[in-house]
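ok posting inputs for the nicotinamide-adenine-dinucleotide job
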Amino acid sequence: MRIQVKSNIRDYEVIIERNSISKLQEYFSFEGKVMIITDENIPLTYIQEVKKTIQKCYVYTVKAGDQSKSLEVYQAIIKELLYLHFDKFDCLIALGGGMIGDLTGFVASSYKRGIAYINVPTSTLAQIDSSIGGKVALNCHGVKNCIGFFYPAYKVIIDVNLLKTLPARHYYAGLVEALKAGILQDQTLYTLFKNQEVDTRIEEVIYRALMVKKKIIEMDEFDKNQRKLLNLGHTIGHALESSSKFHLLHGEAVAYGLLKMIDDFTLQKEVCRIIDSLQIDLHNIKYDKNSILEYVLNDKKIDHDKIDLVRVKGIEDCFLQRISLKELGDLL
Ligand SMILES: NC(=O)c1ccc[n+]([C@@H]2O[C@H](COP(=O)([O-])OP(=O)(O)OC[C@H]3O[C@@H](n4cnc5c(N)ncnc54)[C@H](O)[C@@H]3O)[C@@H](O)[C@H]2O)c1
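and the output
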């Protein structure tokens, strides 16, 4: 399966194919040096598969976890690229989850004013969502994604076989982004969740979720208008994720935020059942309402005391609503 994404920066292609990591050369011509950027949890066999077909290939491994999306790690990678004399025509490969995609994309966007990078996402979240759309970022002073650019990968190569080694908790939490895409704009995708067919039809789930995101980012790449729809569940989700000191995974927190955006009780119950079927337990989540509102105040999307929320009337029937922090408090 292939998806062409149009971008104001550069158009790019997404390829969804099993065993594609062992034939990256077929999809991109690596002419100069290549550096794979990966983390310590990514199995060595994946790195070897990618390396096998590329002549001048180096590997840079960072610690797993969002703390590697930092200026310190960024500087260390730049130092290594300089040491190895990487030039403008060389290339990076992001081999990992969303953290590695964001970090590698950030390095690629700034090294020698921009070099090529290929994204080979290895987590559900990255295959379903973060590998397209061009957002690359680092965290700084404890604030997530506060330094960033738009810099899409030159190619995105998705091999669902890589998900076999992803821990179950990350696998299911990542799927929440696809559930969100189904609720936003794809009834068929939503039905796959309702009928619990997601695991057996994972390629279709990834393809459909990416198609929803593609349509939205092609209309509003730089997050001025319609792209805000992709934030469904994320305003409360991000605040909850931060206030839990990241004990909750992104997808788990978004699942909670998503439920709060659904007014219709019957639909809310149905989505709740779907989230249960993804082995995500939302029943014991506890939080302090004021601390959630405090985190929302730091949200990049807040405009004075107002914020745009994505509300759900029904499947494929969502709308943006500007509300005050007080009204948000009433929803919690
Ligand atoms: N750029 C965007 O549009 C965008 C969108 C959403 C999230 N993000 C970012 O993505 C990151 C979260 O992504 P994530 O959930 O993939 O987290 P992650 O990259 O930290 O990966 C989760 C865990 O799974 C491990 N892992 C990944 N793939 C594996 C595999 N195939 N086998 C074994 N272990 C594997 C990782 O080492 C890590 O421990 C955050 O930094 C978030 O800010 C970016």
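notes: The CA atoms of residues 101 and 158 lie 13 Å apart. The mean pLDDT is 93.
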